[in-house]
Amino acid sequence: MRILVLGGTGEARALAAALVADGMDVISSLAGRVQQPRRPEGSVRIGGFGGVDGLAAFLRDDDITAVVDATHPFAATITRNAAIGAEQVGVPRLVLRRPGWDIQSSWQVVADMPAAARAVRTWSGESVFLTTGRRDLAVFADDDRHRFLVRTVDPPEGPVPPQTTLLLDRGPYTLDGERALLREYGVGLLVTKNSGGSMTAAKLQAARELSVPVVMVQRPPLPEGSEVVATVADALAWIIRSGSGAG
Ligand code: NAP
């Protein structure tokens, strides 16, 4: 019985720890994007599989009996590849995904990152706080009118807006800290994506308190037919139900 956990999130690490504690054979897979990833317990492999075919071959060659896709809600490519690859090989697949934040009526909700960039371009204020991730900055790069405070875990690799202040940091963030940050940089607009979870939610509360408007990017849709749970406990129950658990 071997479980592949597609990771890169706190939920994936918690699931791997729970599986190890239950004596199960678990391999966590990380993309290898961040310089110092938080390593899950149990076996870990790092790097892409080489598309759907590579992932399907891995499932077959490593005798994987179930896949739990516990990747970030915005990691749409690996989620799609896992759906197709697992189906090809006939391996059961579960998506473990934390719920999104409840949509506030005051937020401007947009479908994707280009739509967020368009919303910023028409905003008449000056200082924008971008917490959309380092790989989503290119769409903002030709905006030379606004000042951007950009917070990422690792430095961006692609183009960034000309007036960018870069803040390298990794959550969890506190309400006091987020409040102080918004004040220090005179932030007038927060642009973020609906990652959900508690680690990065404090900025939303701080924005509400300081009447800073929010542009919120919606999650990409999950592949059709995906079975989804929101908690590690439910993922464990599914693994046992699907006949992949030890014992
Ligand atoms: P993505 O766009 O969905 O995937 C791009 C490619 O990266 C995939 O096709 C795959 O390469 C490889 N990949 C992604 N996740 C992988 C994994 N767990 N194990 C092995 N290969 C993986 O992914 P992304 O948005 O760049 O995110 C990369 C990783 O960072 C994910 O594991 C995700 O959980 C984590 N993360 C993402 C975000 C975010 O905002 N997107 C935030 C926090 C953490 P191949 O095609 O070669 O297999």
Sheet having the most strands: 6 strands, parallel
Overall CATH architecture of the largest domain:
3-Layer(aba) Sandwich
Q: Determine the fraction of residues in helical runs and give it as a percent range.
A: 25-40%
Q: Any idea what the radius of gyration is?
A: 19 Å
User: What is the CATH homology-level superfamily of the largest domain?
Assistant: NAD(P)-binding Rossmann-like Domain
Give the CATH topology of the largest domain.
Answer: Rossmann fold
Strand proportion: 15-25%
Bound compounds, each kind once, are: NADP nicotinamide-adenine-dinucleotide phosphate
Global shape:
elongated
Spatial ordering of strands, largest sheet:
3-2-1-4-5-12
Task: Show unreliable segments.
Answer: none
Number of strands: 12
Q: What's the rounded overall pLDDT mean?
A: 96
Name the structural class: alpha/beta
* The number of domains: 2
State the helix count: 7
